[in-house]
Amino acid sequence: MKDIYTLGIESSCDETSVAVVKNGREILSNIIDTQIPIHEKYGGVVPEIASRNHIEAISRVMKKAIEEAKITLEEIDAITPTYGPGLVGALLVGLSYAKALSFAMNKPLVGVNHIQGHIAANYITYKELEPPFICMMMSGGNTQIIYVKDYTKFEVLGKTRDDAIGEAFDKVARVVGLGYPGGPKVDKLAKEGEPNIELPKTHFENMDFSFSGIKTAVINLHHKNPEVNKADLCASFEKTVTEILIENVNKAIKLTGIKTIALAGGVSANSYIRKAFLALEQEDVENKIKIYMPDLKLCTDNAAMIASAGYYNYINGKRDTLDLNAIPNLKL
Question: What domains does the chain contain, in order, with CATH numbers?
Answer without folding.
Answer: 5-118+299-315 (3.30.420.40), 131-296 (3.30.420.40)
